[in-house]
Structure formats: C-alpha cells, structure tokens
Write a structure and sequence with these properties.
Length: 660
C-alpha cells in the first residue's frame, strides 16, 4: 500500500464545467497526484466536512494523466487496466467508482505529458460516510507504470433529492466464471436484510465487468447476463455488455479500443446499474439475490468482478425539481470530444430530482454576454430519470463561426420554469461551459474518399466491403450531399457546392468500426487502408478537427467521425450550365460612416439585418431600392454580419468591418 497526502480547498464556484452552479458554495477535497507505477493500492487520508451542512450533490473526479516510465519498459501506459476507486471505513471497503485506463501509447495523437482525462462519478449517496477523516483508495490493477492519478471531491451545498438513511455493502467478488465444479454463483451470497427506520425506498447499485478470455472469448469478449431476485421473484435481468466502444470519446488509442467488451471500453468509465427494490420501507425484511447466467467454459477461464451496495432513502425533499447535469455541446469537456467543436444546436442533460413527473421545462440559453434565447421542452420525465435535450439552432453560434472567430468562449443555460411553475430548487438551474468554435470552410469543396477492404464478423476480420461512406447535412438534418453504396478498395472524388450560408455536419461512417485505417493491419499486404481528404477548389487541403493527426495516415476514428463547419455564402462550383446574374455588392468594406448595398437581379422587398458577433441585431430595415445606404456612425467598431433576404426568402450573408 502506498500513502498519498491530501489538501482541502473551499471555493465559491467550480472550474470544471459539469460542476458550475450558482448560488451555493462548494467544498473541494483533493489528494495529491501519484504515479501509478505498479499493481497495488494508493491510499490517502482526507478530511471531509463534519456533516453539519447538507449537499445537493457530491462528485468524485479522478484525473488520469501519464508519465514516461524510467527506461521505457514494455507496455508503459499502453494497456487497458482496471482502476477501482474505494472508500475505506473501519468495517467495510466500498467501491464508489470504476474505470479502465486507455491504450495511451506514446506519440499517439491524444496522448503525451500534458494529457489529462477527468472521470466524474456522482457519489452523493455516500454522504453519510463522507464526513470527517476518511481513507480513500485508488486500486490499480496494472502490471506496468506510466499513468498518474489524482482524486478530487466536490461537495456542492444544497438539498439532495432524497436523504440516505442507510448504506449496506452486499459483496465485492472477483472470481473465474465458467467452471462447472466451482460455479461463480457460489460466491454471491443470498442477502437477508431489514430496512432501517425512515426508509421509504431502496435501490441496489451494481458494478460489473468481465475480464480474461476462454475458448469462447468469455468473459471479456462474450456477452452473458445476470438476474436480480427480490424475495425469490425476479425483478431485473441485465446483459453484461457494452456495444459502443467504437464510439469512445477517448480516441484514437494504440490498442484494440474499438472492440466491444463485457460492460467496459478501454479508456472509459464503467457505468453502474441501479436496480430499484420495490415495496421496501422502514422495518421491511427482505431477501436479495444476484444470479449469473449458467455457463461452462473451456480452456483458460475468464472472470467477472462485481460489487453491490444497497442504499436506503427517505422521502423526496422536493416536489418539483429539474436539475441541469451536463452540457454536451458546445463544450471543451474531453468527455464529449466527438460532439465538439459543435454546430449551432446546443445539447444538454437534465435530471428530475423531485418526486413529481416533469412534463415541461422552460430554458434560457445563449453565448455569455449575448442575447439569450428562450425554449420550452415538453415530454415526460419521471422522478430520478434523465433526458438529453437538443435546443433549437442558436444563430449567435452561426454568426460567430461565419466571422471566423478563434479562441474560447462561454455558453450558458438556465432553467426558468418547470411544468409552468417556479422550480423548487434554484441552485441546480444554471450551468456554463467553455467552448471553441467550429471552423469556417469554403462553400465549394472537393471530397476524396478511398475505402479500405476489411470487414468484421463475430469478432473475426475478413477481406470484404466495410461500406464506408460520408454524408453532409444541414442543422435540420436534411441531406445536402453524400457518397453512399461504395465498393471496397476504391477511390471516389466528389465536388460539393453548399446551398446556403450556415452550419453543416459532415459525418463519416464505417460498418467495421475500424475507421479507414487501423494500425493492427499495418504490414499485411492483402489489407489496403483507406483515407479521406477535404480540399478547396484550388486543391489546398482543409484540416479537420481531431482528424489530421500530425500527418499520420491512421484515419483511426472507430465507427464514425463527425465534423461541424460553417460556410459564409452559397457555393457556385460545378455548375456549368447556368449563368448567375443575381448578386449583391457591399462597399466600402471596412466602412467608417456608411456602407452601400447594390442589388442585381433580385426582386424587392429586401429584409436587411446587421448583427454583431454575439448575435445581437443592431440594425434592421426593409428596402425597395436596388441601391441602399446604411449609416454606421452609431455602431461600435468591430466585425458584423449583414444578413440580406430577398422576396423569395433566399438569404445571403456578408461580413462587414466597421472602423472608427
């Protein structure tokens, strides 16, 4: 066991996006960073608050980084090891969270000395135990070094959804699976318990992952299930499997990160399963059993590692409470790497922390210091459930991206009402995220796709057609260009002319979830990798976010790659049988006192708006003349968007710089 020291900090606001809330103070508890140099326990004694305050949420963040092992031994930070995050009490050791380290190969695009990945776990239910001096543990199962780790706890003041009136550890089992003479279920005890006084509901938190591989791929690469029985009656059955590893936000990695596995993916958090235990109240006696599928394996057996904890809850503290829990886009959070830099449609996550079903939520959202937009979501959100909500398109994001702005900005969202009423808890109604803008591309593009020739079936790879393709859609989801029905090992070049100014989404997909080029096939003569390139009409390459990996040819993005981008005006390339006589001319640009708009071939009336880079309309008018003068003396110096719309509803966007 290795001991690490800790420190305590008191902050009024949080830097981590997922924790930004107002009002209410937050107490931070940190351990020092430690090198995970070999298999073992890394322990720290930390001082939590004394329990005199209530906290609406407690988050545990394990920040993973890397260092180079002395002498660079084999597998230094290059393997998928299990990390268990534990709370040690005088009588029990509770598992609070689990994640798997990535194949963080040196020199791979995402990794290096400055790489950090935060793994965030909601540990609010452990609050009765997170008081005073406590020991916390990072258990590292790796047989090589290379990773760094640090634990942080954020205790956010307020009222939780329910008070926890009791916590009971059921078991923590790691054992081989598939031995008929030594069944796994023999190690899962039948639990007989009585709920403590004040209990109004109960739930079991169950963490399980499969590791190792027998002749059938079990347990890591073979799906099995478990059942939950309450008083001998089955209340749940759950497959032990994750089928989305090829969509991992932590990509590319140096190993077999795209393979689906037994409830885990390399580099990802392990999500617990929560099973509500119905009809349990204070004084209720009950029997609880977990039974794994009967299975007999062959060869060297794999194993499952599972832990189970029951939480007993009091009544709901709030009747009507919608809680913002995450901003998925726009954000720089690495846990939403694939979705960002995003387009003009913000996406957030909401939790129902009250005892009443939610049928509508009123929101206000926008870029900080810009004009906010209001939106009302309708649906059904039961107590304790979560939902992801996509907002209507935010024009400010489009304007900023068309302006070609760089740097980091802030997006903010607020809940302003629930079910047409005031929310019971205002402390969880606001969030802020940092974000970067998607790039500005030309409206005329040349897209070249070279397909590969490898397919996957039931875990085996064969020569064939992986059906690799691309599609460009606008923000409404309408397809504006695509390349489909491709053949293996074939190059396609397509000229694309975007129809209007605004945001677009480019998505590449591959049925084999191995991108267009995956490193295990390097050096195999029969396997031909693919590639994808975007160029302007002069032949100049256009870089793509998180794709052009320092000039390497990997094209290693798993199941899909998404790129958002904007264009400032409609494209014209590739149309040879049509002569355009319709246009607008804007001059002088930059403008000091005024600028002119000359219109050719477009029928009046014309709707004209001048918008600043934060989306605020500073001037608008309707004109009939084909030569229009716009005064600018009253406007601040800076970059503006001129949005011109003719009588047919067609829009044109021009950049205008105003100087003083």
């Amino acid at each position: 066991m290795k001991k690490i020291t800790c420190a305590v900090f008191f902050l009024a606001s949080l830097a981590l996006q997922a924790l930004v809330t107002t009002p209410g103070d937050t107490t931070w508890v940190h351990t020092n960073q430690v090198n995970l140099d070999y298999y073992g326990d890394f322990d720290a004694t930390v001082t939590f608050p004394d329990g005199s305050k209530t906290y609406r949420k407690i988050l545990m963040i394990c920040t993973l980084g890397q260092y180079d092992c002395p002498g660079n031994p084999q597998y230094c930070h290059q393997w998928d090891y299990t990390v268990n995050l534990q709370l040690i009490t005088p009588t029990e050791t509770f598992e609070m969270g689990r994640f798997i380290t990535p194949y963080a190969t040196s020199g791979w695009p995402r990794f290096g000395p400055s790489w950090k990945q935060p793994y965030v776990f909601d540990v609010t239910d452990f609050y009765p135990l997170l008081q005073g001096n406590k020991d916390v543990r990072i258990h590292y199962s790796g047989y090589s070094g290379g990773f760094t780790a640090k634990l942080s706890f954020a205790l956010i003041e307020g009222t939780p959804a329910r008070n926890v009136v009791g916590i009971k550890k059921l078991f923590d089992v790691s054992h081989t699976y598939g031995d008929a003479a030594d069944p796994f279920n023999n190690y899962l005890p039948s639990i007989n318990e009585t709920a403590p006084a004040g209990t109004q509901s109960a739930a079991m938190k169950f963490l399980v992952t499969g590791h190792g591989s027998d002749n059938n791929g079990c347990c890591e690469f073979d799906s099995h299930f478990y059942k939950v029985l309450l008083n001998s009656a089955q209340i749940a059955q759950k497959d032990i499997w994750r089928d989305d590893c090829g969509l991992n936000d932590l990509y590319p990695q140096g190993g077999t990160w795209i393979y689906d596995r037994a409830n885990w993916c390399p580099g990802a958090k392990v999500y617990p399963n929560y099973h509500e235990l119905p009809n349990i109240t204070g004084g209720s006696s009950y029997q609880l059993d977990v039974q794994f599928e009967n299975y007999t394996g062959g060869g060297s057996l794999g194993s499952y590692h599972c832990s189970a904890t029951v939480f007993y809850y009091g009544a709901y503290n709030k009747t009507l409470d919608a809680s913002l829990t995450d901003i998925i886009a726009p954000t720089t959070d690495p846990n939403h790497f694939r979705a960002n830099p995003s387009g003009s449609i913000p996406k957030i996550k909401v939790h129902n922390a009250g005892g009443t079903a939610i049928t509508s939520i009123d929101f206000s959202y926008g870029v900080t210091d810009s004009t906010s937009v209001n939106y009302t979501w309708t649906g059904t959100l039961a107590p304790l459930e979560d939902t992801t909500i996509s907002f209507p398109e935010l024009q400010t994001l489009t304007n900023m991206s068309i302006a070609g702005l760089n740097g980091t900005y802030e997006f903010e969202v607020a809940i302003t009402g629930v079910n047409g009423q005031t929310d019971d808890d205002a402390t969880n109604n606001n969030m802020v995220s940092d974000f970067a803008l998607a790039p500005l591309w030309p409206s005329d593009l040349m897209l070249t796709l070279k397909t590969s020739n490898i397919v996957e079936t039931n875990g085996s790879w064969f020569l064939g057609n992986p059906n690799q393709k691309w599609v460009i859609t606008d923000m409404s989801g309408a397809v504006v260009a695509s390349r489909d029905n491709t053949n293996a090992d074939t190059q396609y070049s397509d000229q694309v002319s975007l129809p209007a100014a605004g945001f677009y989404k480019l998505k590449l997909t591959s049925d084999n979830c191995a991108g267009l080029h995956w490193w295990p096939f390097d050096g195999t003569p029969a396997v031909h990798p693919g590639f994808f390139k975007v160029k302007d009409m002069s032949g100049t390459s256009i870089p793509m976010n998180n794709y052009a990996y320092a000039g390497t040819p990997r094209d290693d993005w798993g199941c899909e790659y998404v790129q958002y981008f904007t264009v400032a005006s409609a494209g014209t390339a590739g149309i040879e049988d049509q002569t355009y006589t319709e246009s607008i001319r804007v001059y002088p640009n930059p403008a000091t006192n005024f600028f002119m708009i000359d219109v050719v071939g477009l029928a009046p009336p014309y709707n004209i708006r001048l918008v600043d880079i934060l989306g605020k309309t500073v001037f608008q008018t309707k004109a009939q003349r084909q030569s229009i003068q716009i005064p600018t003396r009253e406007f601040s110096a800076g970059l503006y968007m001129l949005i011109f719309q003719d009588s047919n509803g067609q829009k044109r966007v021009k950049k205008i710089v105003i100087t003083k």
